[in-house]
Amino acid sequence: QVQLQESVSVGGSLRLSCAVSGRPLSQYAMGWLCLALGKERESVANIKTYLDDTSYSDSVKGRFTISGDNAKNTVYLQMDNLKPEDTAVYYCATSALTYYTTSFLTRTSQYDFWGQGTQVTVSS
To answer: Which of 7, 22, 108, 122 is the most buried (most CB within 10 A)?
Structure first.
């Protein structure tokens, strides 16, 4: 069974962590997605460690960094220069398939297991 456990560390910026069990990062893409009030769930960042590839939505490019540790089977999202519009529930998710392209995974249907979600609130 695949499980994803999210956690948060705080210190000026935010770092989200997602420990994955049951599915290796070395074979499946991982993503962070967000759900803001009144909006649809949106893909924020993807990582495919087996391709050494990361990709981002335009709204976070240059501010957020996704990384993965295959030995720990954990994916991270470093969130710097946070803005009020980043306020949302953030979910980590693992892809249903092994994608062999570097294209940005945008559809929620491309993921089949999800973490519980972490609320991120940024005040102005």
So the answer is: 108
- Evaluate whether 59 touches 45 at the Cβ level (below 8 Å): no
Give the C-alpha separation, 53 to 38, whole Å: 31
> Residues with Cβ < 8 Å from 110, sequence gap 6 or more?
29, 31, 95, 96, 97, 99
83, 99, 111 from 57: Cα distances, Å = 15, 18, 16
pLDDT tier at 11, thresholds 50, 70, 90: low
* Tens of pLDDT, residues 72-113: 999 999 999 988 899 999 999 999 888 888 889 989 999 999
**pLDDT for residue 8:** 62
Residue 34 CB contacts under 8 Å (≥ 6 apart), including other chains: 41, 42, 44, 86, 88, 89, 90, 91, 120
